[in-house]
Design brief:
single chain, alpha/beta, 2 domains, nine-stranded mixed beta sheet, 9 helices, 14 strands, globular, PLC-like_Pdiesterase_TIM-brl, phosphoric diester hydrolase activity
């Protein structure tokens, strides 16, 4: 991307955030519409790139986690849900890495000014995992101060924590690295110490493959115990928990399920409805 184009993209993204300030000369975006309000660390923007304004909408709603699907095309990492919708202008750098780097520079080494907890960037690999991860690793290393880093057994927190999901073939090259800028998204089969949290930092799975309840009626006691057992086991190993394919249509069923997820200690609530989840979490400030 040409420098003028990149600067223009950063300026546009910054202006989209209410209350943002474009820094003269640097053409970065700073300020924060969240000033004085806590980030919603439980909120995960599923398929964030399909929002009207990728990343900026999620940050405007104070989300703690965003998801980007990537395809390896040549040496470029293109963003999209299906190969048919890929656009050479929509790269991981242009939509996420460059804007995040600019924001962190402007906000004193944090995504949310005054909050040191990292934003989670969940990168879902859609092409062959091993080759895509190796290229992704090269891209991440262009931003060495942006990401939480694993280095020979030690973790050095950064403003953004990259977690790799999608094609499972990414696991082997990641696990072989003594130093990396990303962590792995495990499945329930990985629960219980199959790998340390310094490698598998997140446990994710399909809600509908694990539970029958969809928010209507009472939550079966056995399923509630199962859910709480999952979160307890993950947290005992320093891992966080997320479920996808949870009900996402506004209504009592979704609210009931989200309430149970929070009560069980699930770390990330998955949604495409950013405003809906923001309103729900703002109404549950003790969660």
């Amino acid at each position: 991307m040409a420098l003028s184009t990149r600067r223009g993209a950063l300026t546009t993204l910054g202006a989209a955030l209410a209350g943002a300030v474009v820094l003269p000369g640097a053409q970065a975006w700073a300020g924060s519409p969240h000033r004085g309000r806590r980030p919603l660390w439980n909120a995960h923007a599923h398929n964030d790139y399909e929002q009207h304004r990728p990343l900026s909408d999620a940050l405007g709603h104070r989300f703690g986690s965003v998801e980007a699907d990537i395809f390896l095309v040549g040496d470029q990492l293109l963003i999209g849900h299906d190969a048919s919708e890929l656009d050479p202008a929509r790269t991981l750098e242009s939509l996420y890495l460059d804007p995040l780097a600019a924001l962190v520079r402007a906000n004193g080494d944090s995504v949310y000014r005054g909050w040191r907890r990292p934003l989670q960037l969940l990168v879902d690999i859609k092409t062959e995992g091993s080759s895509t991860y190796r290229e992704l690793d090269r891209h991440l290393r262009r931003f060495p101060h942006l990401f939480t880093r694993y280095d020979h057994g030690r973790i050095h927190p950064g403003p953004v924590t990259a977690v790799i999901s999608g094609d499972r073939a990414a696991r082997a090259p990641m696990q072989a690295q003594a130093e990396r800028l990303a962590f792995y998204d495990g499945r329930l089969a990985d629960l219980g110490g199959a790998a340390p949290a310094s490698f598998i930092s997140l446990i994710s799975d399909n809600w509908t493959q694990v539970f029958t309840w969809s928010g209507d009626g009472a939550f079966p006691d056995a399923e509630r115990r199962k859910l709480r057992g999952i979160t307890a086991a993950a947290h005992a190993h320093g891992q966080r928990v997320r479920f996808w394919a949870t009900p996402d249509a506004a209504g009592p069923a979704r609210d009931a399920l989200w309430t149970e997820l929070l009560a069980a200690g699930v770390d990330y609530l998955n949604t495409d409805d950013l405003a809906g989840l923001q309103a729900f979490l703002d109404a549950h400030p003790t969660a």
